[in-house]
Design goal:
The chain is α+β, with helices and mostly antiparallel strands and 222 residues long. It has 7 helices and 7 strands; from the N terminus they run H-H-H-E-E-E-E-H-E-H-E-H-E-H. The chain has 2 domains: 80 residues, GTP cyclohydrolase I, N-terminal domain (GTP Cyclohydrolase I, Chain A, domain 1, Orthogonal Bundle); 129 residues, GTP cyclohydrolase I, C-terminal domain/NADPH-dependent 7-cyano-7-deazaguanine reductase, N-terminal domain (GTP Cyclohydrolase I, domain 2). It has a 5-stranded mixed sheet with strand order 5-2-3-6-7. Strands 1-4 form a two-stranded antiparallel ribbon. The structure holds guanosine-5'-triphosphate (GTP) and zinc ion (ZN). This is GTP cyclohydrolase 1.
Length: 222
C-alpha cells in the first residue's frame, strides 16, 4: 500500500479529522517482519539497561515475544490492511428503531503510558436503509482499540467509521473503561473508571440519547 493512501486509510474516514491517529509519514515503510526485528532489539536494550540478564532461560525470549505482541496483537490496528470488512445489507425488513450492540469487550492501550485500558463499549445506530452485521461493530471497536489510544479519540473513531459504513450520521458510542495508568500506578485509584461518549445525528436529541443510555444502563463490573 502506498504510504499516503495508507495514512489516509488509518483515519479510516478517507479524510483526516481531529480523531485521526497521529502517524509518521514513513509509518508503512517497514514490513511487519522488519518492525518485529527492530522492536525486539529495542526491548532487549530496555531490559539490559534495567539490569536484567537476558541469558536467563525465562527472560531470553521476552524481547521477541513483546515485539510480536506489539505488531501482531495489541497495536495491530495501526495497519489499515487489518481493518475488518464491515459487510452491510439493505434494511429489507424496514426495521426503523434503534439498534444497540452493548457490552462490547474492550482492550486497548493508553498512549501516554503504554498500559492497558480495559472496559466496555456500547454502540448504537438508527438505519437509514443500510444494516451492518452485528459482529462487525465488535470488530470495528476492536480494530480501533488495537492502537495506542486516548479514550476520547477511540470513541470518536468508532462513531466516524460506522457513520461511513452505514451512510448515516445517526450513530453513537459510549465507552466505560479502566485505565491501568490510573488504577495501578500514579494515583493508584483502583475504583475509578472513565466514561466517554460521542453522539451523532439524531443521538444529539435528548429523547434518542436517553433511550440509548437507558438500554445500556452502565454496568461497571468489569
Ligand atoms: N484525557 C485522557 N487522559 C488520559 C488518558 N489515558 C491516560 N490519560 C492521562 O494522561 C495524563 C498524563 O499526564 P502526565 O502528567 O504527563 O503523566 P504522569 O506524570 O505519569 O501523570 P500521573 O498519571 O498523574 O502520574 C495522566 O493524567 C493520565 O491519567 C485518556 O484516554 N484520555
Ligand atoms: Zn496512561
Amino acid at each position: 500500500m502506498k504510504t499516503d493512501k495508507a495514512i489516509e486509510a488509518i483515519g479510516d474516514n478517507h479524510v483526516s479529522t481531529s480523531a485521526t491517529t497521529p502517524l509518521r509519514k514513513d509509518a508503512f515503510i517497514l514490513t511487519d517482519k522488519e518492525k518485529i526485528a527492530s522492536i525486539r532489539e529495542d526491548i532487549k536494550h530496555i531490559m539490559e539497561t534495567l539490569g536484567l540478564d537476558l541469558t536467563d532461560d525465562s527472560l531470553k525470549g521476552t524481547p521477541q515475544r513483546v515485539a510480536k505482541m506489539f505488531v501482531n496483537e495489541i497495536f495491530s490496528g495501526l495497519h489499515p490492511e487489518r481493518k475488518p470488512d464491515a459487510s452491510t445489507f439493505s434494511n429489507n425488513y424496514k426495521y426503523g428503531e434503534m439498534l444497540v450492540e452493548k457490552n462490547i469487550t474492550l482492550y486497548s492501550t493508553c498512549e501516554h503510558h503504554l498500559l492497558p485500558i480495559v472496559g466496555r463499549a456500547h454502540v448504537a445506530y438508527i438505519s437509514n436503509g443500510t444494516v451492518v452485521g452485528l459482529s462487525k461493530m465488535n470488530r470495528i471497536v476492536d480494530y480501533y482499540a488495537k492502537r495506542p489510544q486516548v479514550q476520547e479519540r477511540l470513541t470518536m473513531q468508532i462513531v466516524q467509521d460506522l457513520q461511513i459504513v452505514l451512510g448515516t450520521k445517526d450513530v453513537a458510542c459510549v465507552i466505560d473503561a479502566k485505565h491501568l495508568c490510573v488504577n495501578s500506578r500514579g494515583i493508584r485509584d483502583i475504583e475509578s473508571s472513565t466514561v466517554t461518549s460521542e453522539f451523532g445525528g439524531k443521538f444529539k436529541e435528548n429523547a434518542v440519547r436517553r433511550e440509548f443510555l437507558d438500554y445500556i444502563k452502565l454496568d461497571t463490573t468489569f
